[in-house]
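Our working data are protein records whose layout never changes between entries. Instead of coordinates, the fold is spelled out as a row of discrete tokens. Here is such a record, shown just as it appears in the course material:
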Amino acid sequence: MMWLFDHPRRAQTLRWISLSTRTSTARGSSDASTKVSKPPPKPKRRAKSPIPKRVISDVFKEAKAATKRFSSPQRQRKPMSPRSPDDSPPLGFASLRAPSKLKINTRASSWPRTNLDSGPARVAAPEILERWTVDRSELLIGHRFASGAYSRLFHGIYKDQPVAVKFIRQPDDGEDDELSAKLDKQFTSEVTILARLQHRNVIKLVGACNCPTVFCVITEFLSGGSLRAFLRKLERETLPLEKVISIALDIARGLEYIHLQGIVHRDIKPENILFDGEFCAKVVDFGVACEEKYCNLLGDDPGTYRWMAPEMYKHKPYGRKVDVYSFGLVLWELVTGSLPYQDMTPLQAAFAVVNKNLRPAIPLSCPAALKLLIEQCWSWQPERRPEFQQIVSVLENLKTVLERDGTLDKIPGSICQALEPNDQNKKKAGNWIQRLSYAQPAFSGPPPPKLL
């Protein structure tokens, strides 16, 4: 028997045979010896009770809908279909070419038949959308760099030019018909409005695409980032006055042009101000913009609480002056480098503005001229807010004074008394604004009121 252990395999075989023999012997003698005790039976699990149906109150639904203003829920991206190696795009980019069964719906009936004023003639939205539809085979998609509640922003290349691609995901079939119709309308409105705007301080439209499961808006790519990111990098350090006025002028000029086209942006905030490579500020994101004469007929609830005008909170009729109010808060952020109402939640800020007429505190270091302009812009009464033609004129004159004197302190500080309930003080401040303003050009809407 010793020779079996000289070879390891034989030894293992012997041991294995021995164990199996021992097991079989034990099984055979189980009847004659003591029976092996079996484990006690496990108790049966009780069937799960059905989850009771919850009736959601209207108050809860309204509060839940309101949170969409400042929350960005992450949606799961659907897996992409496999692509052959021959069609591989450049590294870091993906082609938007879809399988043969996915075709762009080019029928006129697929677009909402809405009309937009464009000078003397009226242009139908389907015609504009068809004109701006892109060739998807020439569009490459890169990495995502921003996201919203229902949209995602990606780097892209279209016809060898860098672009920004915004995808607006359509809900799945039967998921939410009301939301699907709302996003469809928003996409159509954004493209038709951007197609009409051509200005140095407004983002430029490149094209659009209506895919079966997603909307796509393509614009120029602005490499300078957002005003929010720029202010965040300052870490509450104050900007030089030259930079404050320069950025404010770019924003005001863009909004002046937008208003002259009869458009109201309705969501002016630092996140919607982007810079190009030369640090020129541009107004972006026209997803909730509207024509001024139709804004009150839409029945929607746009904007962002911290920068929203009081009349929008209270669902009162409003017009282009809501953008002036928001601009006043953006100008305050340029001066202070801080977030308005940063110690409050957005809902708390909205409540304080509506019920207590609260505004952020303007620092004492702010020049009197800028202080007055900020206070006039965020005035409670829309008719007391200046037009953007006046704002541009005032900022241009402040820029001239600053370049000439190196300071704005020579402008009398007594003009800050304009907000006190004194008609004489208001008249003095109004005369000061008029001296800095130029003659107003003809405006298609009602004549701009005097600044009080």
User: Anything to note?
Assistant: DSSP finds 13 helices and 13 strands in the chain.
